[in-house]
Amino acid sequence: MLAMIKNKVIDYYYSLSINKKITLFFMAALSLLIVLLAVFTYRISSSILIGKAIENTAQNLTLVSEKLEIIFDNAENYSKIAITNNTIQQITSEPSLNDPLQNYNKYVTMQDSLRNIVDAKTFVDAMIVYDRNHQIYDSGSLGAITDISDVYFNKFAHSFYGIAWEDTRISNYMKGNSRSDVISLFQKFNSAKTGVPLGLIQLSIDERYIANQYANIDLGESGDIFIVNKEGIIASDTHKDRLYTSISKDVYFPWALTHEGGKEFQVDGKKVLVVSRSYPRLDWIIIGIVPIHEITKDNQVLTDRFLRLGVIFVIAAIILTLLIAKSITKPLNKIKRTIQEVKGGNLDVWLDIKSRDEIGALAKEFNKMVGNTKILMENIIEEQKKKKEYELAVMQSQINPHFLYNTLESICGLADLKRNADVVKIVNQLALFYRGVLSKGSPVISMEDEIVITQTYLEILKIRYGDQIDYTLDFDPEVYKYKTIKLLLQPIVENSIYHGLKNKRGKGHIHIKGSVKGEYLVIVIADDGIGIQKEKLDTILNMDESDYKNKSFGVKSTDERIKLYFGTEYGLDIASEYGKGTVVTFTLPTHVTTRGDAE
Hints:
Elements: H1 2-15, H2 18-83, H3 86-93, H4 100-118, E1 124-131, E2 136-138, E3 142-143, H5 149-155, E4 163-170, E5 174-175, E6 181-190, E7 197-206, H6 207-215, E8 224-229, E9 234-237, H7 253-258, E10 261-267, E11 270-279, E12 284-291, H8 292-295, H9 297-343, H10 358-398, H11 401-416, H12 420-438, E13 444-446, H13 447-465, E14 469-475, E15 483-485, H14 490-501, E16 508-517, E17 520-527, H15 534-540, H16 553-566, E18 571-577, E19 581-589
Parallel strand pairs: 14-16
Antiparallel strand pairs: 1-2, 1-7, 3-5, 4-6, 6-7, 8-9, 8-12, 10-11, 11-12, 13-15, 16-17, 17-19, 18-19
Helix pairs in contact: 2-9, 11-12, 12-13
């Protein structure tokens, strides 16, 4: 199907005039250049825009990182304020009492101190103190507090000043009627006077406060910033439904884990720009994702306008091309009309083109060519006459008069011997032979008819010579459908008999076979006669016209006839070993049309 369409397109192209071809090529070339220019412009500008987007997003992530640093630095500072507070130091250093009232008063006093520190700090969600006696004090409004101090007492057991940040998790307390997602600072504190460990302070920051630091950063309509830990778990996100989900299997995460900066990735069938920045304090990675189409949308508008403008340019170029092509093809059309006159047989024409460019030079050479052609045609007519006379002489020379005389004498001899059946047979064969030779005067006959002529000739000789001669025919059926020139095989067979088998002692055999090999028709005539001496073999196909009376002229003339009708690439090949026999190979075309007058 594709080959058919391709052939139709090629045929259509070849049928176009030069005017249309020039216009078509110019239009295609200009369109291609404009499209390529638009593509390269789009890619270059997109690359620039993406580079700017990486730079801007990286700056925004740096800003987020700096804001986090301020928040967490302040959190550590407020934690230090709390653990150095005299009231907190005093209460946590006192032993626990059995008096509930005194314990309550201690709790209220501690809560007031913590509240005074926390109330002015909007980023602090809660502050909790755990003493060594597992008493818990909070900054107020908290309930259902889970004591997790043992984990950190053990963790800080060998540290004088232990401090640790905990990744985002659900709070170990309730505020109001719910628990929050918090990032917590845990710090061990000691007595300011004696250095004895007193307890543990927990300062928690609501994750929503962290997310608010980057919620208003604009990364396009669907751009997004979020924070993940080293395991790929989302620690902070403006979309709370994604909190604690994992991106570890996303294609960009391995890169973000070890790189900072920006890179393009294919996510869910869409190209996105991923920009990452590490935040070592909590082993976080801040990630910004922006769809590429949002970055390049303005560029797409520019490209569309560029292409529209390109279409206008192409139309204008087509108009100019038509005008230019017309000025070029006008003298070519004049040449075309003149050539058509020459084709019609009028050689008395003259091209009058005044331009001195390539077309003018072509017209000048054309005039010379027509003049030379006129002279050449006259010479060819004369040569054709000579060729026809030569071919007729060659054809006539193939029908050896001695063959006819000898055959007639054989008939007389058979008649004297009263061998009437053989007489009838040889006369019929002789008639059949000359019927084939005449072939209504046509020089081209079917391969089947040529084989019949050769076989008839051999049958006549078998009757004349009896058992001294034998032959076999071995032809592929496909061979019969092709055509050839008349009396092609008979002269070679005649040579094989009279110069090969006749001088041999005992019975001689001729084997004729034919087959089709690709684009060639190959026929082989092999005899087991006396063969040809090497020095003579080298001259048979190269003899001069002065040797035409040579007894091997049938081989030479047959080779020349093949080359004359079919071309120099075809002809005869002779191989012979003196004393053993000769093989003559015909190489013919499988096409029907022949040169000269053969059609």
